[in-house]
Amino acid sequence: MSFLSATLDRVKPSPTIAVTTLAGELRAQGRDVIGLGAGEPDFDTPEHIREAAKAAIDAGKTRYTPVDGIPELKAAIRDKFLRDNDLDYPVADITVGTGGKQVLYNALVATLNPGDEVIIPAPYWVSYPDMVKLAGGEPVIVEGGLDAGYRITPEQLEAAITPRTKWLIFNSPSNPTGAGYDEAALRALTDVLERHPHVWVLTDDMYEHIAFPGFEFRTPAQVAPALKDRTLTVNGVSKAYAMTGWRIGYAGGPSELIKAMRKVQSQSTSNPCSVSQWAAVAALNGPQDYIPMSRDVFLRRRDLVVAGLNAAEGVTCPVPDGAFYVYPSIAGCIGKTTPAGKKIENDEDFATALLEDTGVAVVFGAAFGLSPNFRVSYATSDEVLEDACRRIQSFCAGLK
């Protein structure tokens, strides 16, 4: 009889964390490594947010708080939803967790029974399928390929829904592709969902504020108010305010679901960090000028990386709508051989050889459910990105 839970056999460690860890280890060994795996802004948290955290410490706000958030933070989140998304959630219908990841996980644990299905468009954030499995559910993967702009169609969504479907997990702009659904595309999907009242929507809006010109962000419950009573609208401060390590995510949703998620959290982590909560209040209520400034930097980096990768032989890199990732296809590289004689059979082979030969660490596409691709996070300096693109171009040119 195994000591470890059989549930762990259904899941794997996060590949993105593994790539970042490996890059750090190689760098510590003296290798010249460029890590493009981490999904976090490289900017400092804005000063007024840091000052709010210091003030909270000095004021002794370092003790336990209510399980899923202080009233001041929930009020700030309520105001944010109303201000940015035209969504009116009572404070009682808002929950705060230790990062958006916990909020998503709480929702799945609170709702899934064995055999329940969760539709996940691919490419997907690596954690979605494994969180579903840990919660006892079954991921149903629907592929949105390069030709479709990495988006799924209403017809694909309709075909994937069964009587066992409980959730659709929706992420726009997307990690890993940066692809977004404009209002018309989103409306087409919500029209399908309105015809299936047993299907709930778990929307991950973490990249809401990193949306580039030509794309206007919308969230499902905003476009289709009829879905609000079966939608959990998830967001957080990590990407918008460079607060990844502060670990604050939040959501608004139906009362029954929020109560169930609160119960899960009460028996797992209890409250998020008290100091981080006060910092998040300052982020949401304070000056918002950081957001457009950081977005402009990401836009410049996006254009730099797209041009650099499209100059590499065998690589096709579409232009993302938002976030800070690109997801190029390497279909033109598959089947080729490195100068050392290693054949590139798949995107994992490509990423491994790229790291070994050039020191550039990327995440292979199979981790995100669609191959042959790789993901680059361009949340680093222009100089580093230019160097990385040159190395990738040289690597691809050397394949035969």
From TrEMBL:
Top EC category: transferase
Pfam families: Aminotran_1_2
UniProt GO molecular function: L-aspartate:2-oxoglutarate aminotransferase activity; pyridoxal phosphate binding
Aminotransferase class I/classII large domain boundaries: 32-392
Keyword Glycoprotein set for record: no
Keyword Transferase: yes
Catalysed reaction, written as an equation: L-aspartate + 2-oxoglutarate = oxaloacetate + L-glutamate
Keywords, alphabetical: Aminotransferase, Pyridoxal phosphate, Transferase
UniProt record, GO biological process: amino acid metabolic process
Cofactor: pyridoxal 5'-phosphate
E.C. number: 2.6.1.-
Subunit structure of this chain's protein: Homodimer.
UniProt family annotation: Belongs to the class-I pyridoxal-phosphate-dependent aminotransferase family.
Protein name in UniProt: Aminotransferase
Organism this protein belongs to: Kangsaoukella pontilimi
Lineage, opening ranks: Bacteria, Pseudomonadati, Pseudomonadota, Alphaproteobacteria, Rhodobacterales
